[in-house]
Amino acid sequence: MSYVVIRSRQDVPRIMYFLRRHRSQAAVILDDLSVPQELPHIKPYNAIPGPKPIPILGNTWRLLPIIGQYDVSDVARLSDIIYRDYGKIARLSGLIGRPDLLFVYDADEIEKIYRQEGPTPFRPSMPCLVKYKSEIRKDFFGKLPGVVGVHGEPWREFRTKVQKPILQLKTVRKYIRPIETVTGDFIRRMEEMMDENKDMPSDFDNEIHKWALECIGVVSLDARLGCLDPNLSLNSEPQRIINAAKYALRNIAILELKFPFWRYFPTTIWKNYVKNMDYFVKICTKYVDEAMERLQKKKITPDSDLSLIERILANEPNKKTAYVLALDLILVGIDTISMAVCSILYQLATRPEQQRKMYEELRQLMPDPNTPLTTKLLDEMVFVKAFVKEVLRMYSTVIGNGRTLQHDTIIRGYHVPKGVQVVFPTLVTGQMEEYVSKSNEFLPERWMKNSDENYSIHPFASLPYGHGARMCLGRRFADLEIQILLAKLIRSYNIEYHHQPLEYKVTFMYAPHGEMKLRMMKRLD
Ligand code: HEM
Q1: What are phi and psi of 238, to 5 degrees?
Q2: Does 145 fall in a domain?
């Protein structure tokens, strides 16, 4: 199917006549994206295939516990099943309390939607966070609600204020040393945790979570939070932060994917969510205030070597921007990265040949394992970077992204009305043979410029960090943190796995599910 974009409504009859005459299958898109219903060839929205809703419960029952056809943890499989059952476009309608979900598995269409999204893309996410920010703590967030769960002008204004420092390589690179220090502490802790077989404990994923928390503390609060301390008392601040991160973040899957009872009355899980979010607000306020005090004592010149938070505080008279930014980074920058790291380490442990290649690259770049990391060294770790990309293609931590359509749009020949939530299932499209050559094979080399073979990949098939103006704000930090961890760990240890294979599931993010008892064998060279 090809498309014809028409600049003016008056041209419609002329173009339609031309298309009919030439028996063309092209779909017509009006430049202003308002689509008249009567255009021939364009099928109505309700003709899109999809699971049939049942009366009263709509399609929500499919996600209900016990009677539901799909479990929350099956969401990744659900997206695959929908593709197999209905093809490249499918509609999940009749979801109580939320708009229809439209699954699009066509990389050309995904590209088109992303490219047309305009200056304020709307990502339908985290309704519970929206309620928290816009109702429960309206007093705090007011006109500066941040980026996560925020849309339209308020989102654009906030993103414009913070985007430059967060994505600027100069700022990100300042964090090589601090993240290397956190990671060194984490690896020492791993040494202490291993059993007599050198296996990590069964809850090793929680330890990775603490490393991610400690990293985000350094980035967003200019602070070492102390989460890697092995002897935390129950009431200590780091332990309370660890617990809040678990409840506030991990329960979002239950709040958002299961029936949203919390919208109608405050359920226990909702009350806990609010309590933990309040705790995060308190922590962010405390550490940003401390950063401000330190900043006030500094003499700032245009060349001052400032941290991310200091730069925000120096440019913005309102401290609220820094509080809210820190909160947003914490909310989305812990689980994403810790789950991605679980997945990457598990893949390394179960792919010894690939791990050997990574090790050889690292040994060549860092003959002494204690070589301090630099921008140059990190840039030269091409296999490390390619391996991470390949894991994110085949096991994308965030299984899909989405946009709420802000205009009526034609997608695969259907007229899709404004307001529908379009889902881009990157986990599925990233593995479709028509978009990715040898899609079922795990080949990091496909991402390497000087690879012997010529692999093709559609640029919109695998987008683990999303795309466009709303793309992941923390992606440079995410890449940096993952790369530093791999460089330090794989240079010095061989990672193995000697237990039952782990299945991938969605518990908020897509990651191996079960006991991550990785074995860490110290390398001798
Ligand atoms: C491997 C780890 C990560 C993955 C796979 C990931 C993925 C994503 C995706 C898919 C989005 C939506 C983008 C879009 O709508 O186009 C997103 C948004 C976002 N991410 Fe990440 N992310 C990761 C790590 C991080 C980290 C470490 C941080 C913070 C330091 C972070 C901060 C954010 C923020 C603030 C947004 C919201 C941006 C906005 O709506 O304007 N992410 N991320």
Answers
A1: -60, -40
A2: yes
48 Cα distance to chain centroid = 28
472 known member of a binding site:
yes
Cα 464 to middle of ligand 1, angstroms: 9
519 Cβ contact list (under 8 Å, min separation 6): 197, 198, 199, 200, 349, 495, 496, 497, 498
**CATH number of the domain bearing residue 168:** 1.10.630.10
Domain count, the chain: 1
Is 44 part of any domain? no
- pLDDT tens for each residue of 380-438: 999 999 999 999 999 999 888 989 999 999 999 999 999 998 999 999 999 999 999 99
In a domain, 239, yes or no: yes
Q: What is the CA radius of gyration of the chain?
A: 24
- State if residue 435 touches ligand 1 by the CB under 6 angstroms criterion: no
Which of 312, 336, 427, 462 for mutating ligand 1's site (highest number of atoms within 8 Å of CB)?
Answer: 336
Nearest CA to ligand 1 atom 11: 472
Length of the chain measured in residues: 525
Atom from ligand 1 closest to the CA of residue 150:
40
Burial of 195 (0-12, 13-18, 19+ CB in 10 A): exposed
Domain extent, residue 142, equals 124-400+437-522
pTM reported for the whole predicted model: 0.89
In a domain, 50, yes or no: no
Tell whether ipTM is more than 0.90: yes
Rounded Cα gap, residues 17 and 474, in angstroms: 49
Its sign, for the CA torsion 446, 481, 312, 135, is positive
Ligand 1 centre to CA of 462 (Å) is: 15
Residue type, 394: M
